[in-house]
Amino acid sequence: MTKLMEWLFGISVVLAAWVLVAFDPLDLSVPHTYREVAWPMPLYLLVSFGCYSLATVGYRVATFNDCQEAARELQGQIKAAKEDLRSKGLKMCN
Amino acid sequence: MSARKTSRSKPNNGDKYSVLLPTYNERENLPLIVWLLVKYFDESGYKYEIIVIDDGSPDGTLKVAEQLQKIYGEDKILLRPRASKLGLGTAYIHGMKHASGNFIFIMDADLSHHTHHVFPLLRKQKEGDYDLVSGTRYRGNGGVYGWDLRRKLISRGANFLTQVLLRPGASDLTGSFRLYKKKVLECLVERCVSKGYVFQMEMIVRARQLNYTVGEVPITFVDRVYGESKLGGNEIVSFVKGLLMLFVTT
């Protein structure tokens, strides 16, 4: 099953449950209060997922490590490498 | 003390590591990365070889590679040049044909991946006998250097979107510092058709699909010291296209 199929399947299950509770097409006599709570649910879900996404991405951007140390170490090693390679007779320019 | 000494002495198992370095105009970087690889591998005692796959760089990368081969020997540095730029996947296939190692490291030849991460990857692989171990910039001590806020935002955003849509079970999908069992890489590379950033993503997504085990190790990514790093509108569009392709097909 491709990811697209998984998503479509998941969405249709949720949608079917929502229709069942919010509009009661099968006359299951769902209490009125349930129906009232249920019908704006997809919107709530969407909004809270959006908030979750923004918060997660924001947090991860803010905590993305800046590897100053790694960059400094690399610069030092580049210097050592260049000196050693020159002494071994490597010509960098043709 | 003696235990420590043993662990530092030459690991005498049959494993050999082939490092694939596809290059295009890396005259400045190639000698440095080769020097670092030789230094770390020689210290460790693991058997290795470095395979340079140069795609006809006009800047003379191949000439520099030939000099390196003279310095370090033909058993350590192998040259597998190609006439023109033909893409990463075929570069790996081309390089692997002559690889004598049973493990393959792939990494960028532009110094953005630090060579000393080779050993954490190698140890991780041994720890769980993983089919592939991927370096990750997004976990633990991993990170980047030289990225502005925009770049970080795009990177994190794209990563989040991919995680939500594909649930790939790996945190760094576009990273290109990885260790593969040779057989696994051969099998995967044949199935992967994407280019650019998407290629590495496809490799790891397909690896999951084929039930290969994936280990992860935090790495630091120091953006290109020499030369330019590119992330323009074109890259973003092709990334999104690739993501959708994987979404529909895997």
Automatic annotation (TrEMBL), chain A:
Family: Belongs to the DPM3 family.
PANTHER family: DOLICHOL-PHOSPHATE MANNOSYLTRANSFERASE SUBUNIT 3 (PTHR16433:SF0)
Membrane disposition: Multi-pass membrane protein
Parts of the chain that traverse the membrane: 7-23, 43-62
Domain of life per record: Eukaryota
Subcellular localization, as worded in the UniProt entry: Endoplasmic reticulum membrane
GO biological process entries: GPI anchor biosynthetic process; muscle structure development
Pfam hit, one: DPM3
Protein name as it appears in the record: Dolichol-phosphate mannosyltransferase subunit 3
A cellular-component GO term for this protein: endoplasmic reticulum membrane
Pathway annotation: Protein modification; protein glycosylation
Subunit structure: Component of the dolichol-phosphate mannose (DPM) synthase complex.
The protein's role, per its UniProt record: Stabilizer subunit of the dolichol-phosphate mannose (DPM) synthase complex; tethers catalytic subunit to the ER.
Keyword terms, alphabetized: Endoplasmic reticulum, Membrane, Transmembrane, Transmembrane helix
Automatic annotation (TrEMBL), chain B:
Cofactor: Mn(2+); Mg(2+); Ca(2+)
Keyword Metal-binding belongs to the record: yes
Stretches assigned to the Glycosyltransferase 2-like domain: 18-188
Class of enzymatic activity (EC top level): transferase
Pathway listed: Protein modification; protein glycosylation
Matching Pfam families: Glycos_transf_2 (PF00535)
Enzyme Commission (EC) number: 2.4.1.83
GO MF annotation list: dolichyl-phosphate beta-D-mannosyltransferase activity; metal ion binding
Chief place of localization: endoplasmic reticulum
Location in or out of the cell: Endoplasmic reticulum
Chemical reaction(s) catalysed: a di-trans,poly-cis-dolichyl phosphate + GDP-alpha-D-mannose = a di-trans,poly-cis-dolichyl beta-D-mannosyl phosphate + GDP
Swiss-Prot/TrEMBL keywords: Endoplasmic reticulum, Glycosyltransferase, Magnesium, Manganese, Metal-binding, Transferase
Biological processes per GO annotation: dolichol-linked oligosaccharide biosynthetic process; GPI anchor biosynthetic process; muscle structure development; protein O-linked glycosylation via mannose
Superkingdom classification of source: Eukaryota
Residue spans crossing the bilayer: none
Gene3D superfamilies hit by this protein: Spore Coat Polysaccharide Biosynthesis Protein SpsA, Chain A
Coiled coil: none
GO CC annotations on file: endoplasmic reticulum membrane
Description of how the protein assembles with itself and partners: Component of the dolichol-phosphate mannose (DPM) synthase complex.
Protein family: Belongs to the glycosyltransferase 2 family.
Job description of the protein: Transfers mannose from GDP-mannose to dolichol monophosphate to form dolichol phosphate mannose (Dol-P-Man) which is the mannosyl donor in pathways leading to N-glycosylation, glycosyl phosphatidylinositol membrane anchoring, and O-mannosylation of proteins; catalytic subunit of the dolichol-phosphate mannose (DPM) synthase complex.
Protein name: Dolichol-phosphate mannosyltransferase subunit 1
Species of provenance: Hippocampus comes
Source lineage: Eukaryota, Metazoa, Chordata, Craniata, Vertebrata
